[in-house]
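Holo model, iron/sulfur cluster. Inputs:
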Amino acid sequence: MQKKKSSVFPGGVHPTDGTDKILSMDKAVQQYWPDTVTILSEQSFGGKCRFVVSPGDTVAEGQMIGEPEAFMAAPLHASVSGKVLEIKEVLNQGRKIPACIIEREKEHQETDWGFRKEAADISGISREEILKALRDGGLTGMGGAGFPTHKKYETDKAIDTLLINGAECEPYLTCDYRLMLEEGYALVNGVRLLLKGSGAKKAYICMEDNKPKAAENLERILDAVQKAGVMTEEGQVELAVLPTKYPQGGERQLIQAVTGREVPMGGLPADAGVIVSNVGTARAAADMILGGLPLIRRIVTVTGCVKEPGNYLVPIGTSAKELLKLAGGVTVSQNRVIAGGPMTGPCVASDWNGEEELFYITKNTSGILVLADSAWEEQPCIRCGGCENACPAGLTPWQIDFAFQEEDYDLCEKLYASECIACGCCSYVCPAKRELSVRTRMARDAVKQKMRERAVKKA
Ligand code: SF4
Ligand code: SF4
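Output:
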């Protein structure tokens, strides 16, 4: 059943020009298996692992190669079968990170699992087995910060609602859209497993109303799964179709739009009785729990100023440079290469000439975007209030910006900089082209660090 939701969160923007997603949304996902993969020991900020293999070792696809060393880390697995060439530091988005380089030795062979084409019977799988599989399989959020999934699901808070995030509100990105179109059964089976793992009785697959084909496809599959009579104990799964508005896919914004609840300041979705997971995460959960395949691959959108924009299913550790080559190369010499979408993704290179390595695909890399560079200079703030109106977190970005530049972190805290979700709306609307979101994000991190230090002193 499809539920149309008209409720929206405050603030937000409409950054699309209506053509950005069109570049890649009608292109079916192509598979690409590179000769070598470079698997980073850090797949999300602060998520460090220690490699447990050595150069010369033969590894099989899915074999565990990295053990977590930090709270934000999840185990790493070989994304191809082959030989470990080197363990060394590589430059990734300007930072040196230890990585395991594997030379692929075997042709990739895809297993034709039934759960990818029909409703699976999950009645014999317990909640504990689901949580263990998520932990062992190294599942992390595939749409946001890359938080280990099992940590979300092992909460002691009472969860009554699971939101599966297919909003994909960032312009240009279409990897989640293609997944909802092409991998509907695996996605729905994964949602049912996560629903059971969460302990909730209701899940919504959420998307914006600019994806009608995906909504039709999932509605058809949900009907078929219902009729198959396998959905007995795990609860209900419905579609929630939401107005198109950025950042509809932000956790807090999605929770507010679908459930009407607000996550308390400084709190987590679980404090509102909700867990939010990306559609890619749910789809990977099906592979993991029903197929025994850890998180070793993902779909990546390669788009913008490239000859052949498209979506590619690739092993973790694929080089962004290789993917841009596969997409026909960049079409403008004055360019900016962005890892992810244009609103939140970091710019990793300017005027990239196609030669230097850029970065390697991690579990949460959703896209590689090339934009034509337009030079601009920041101008003084004209107090127009645009950034305040656009901020979905209800902040005053221009004030935080001033306070941050004055290094007045006490004032940043008083202005609730810790609540910034780094969505980029303020920068997008600013007529003075101020780099607000970069600085509000830095202010947020500084304030959070202060808060942590205070908590440690108190303890
Ligand atoms: S201050 Fe933060 S939350 Fe508000 S619009 Fe800017 S980036 Fe988004
Ligand atoms: S949008 Fe830009 S110019 Fe307007 S108040 Fe905010 S910072 Fe100042």
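Residues 390-391, 393, 395, 397, 420-426, 436-437, 440 surround iron/sulfur cluster (ligand 1) (CB under 6 Å). Residues 436-458 form the longest helix (23 residues).
Archived with the compound record.
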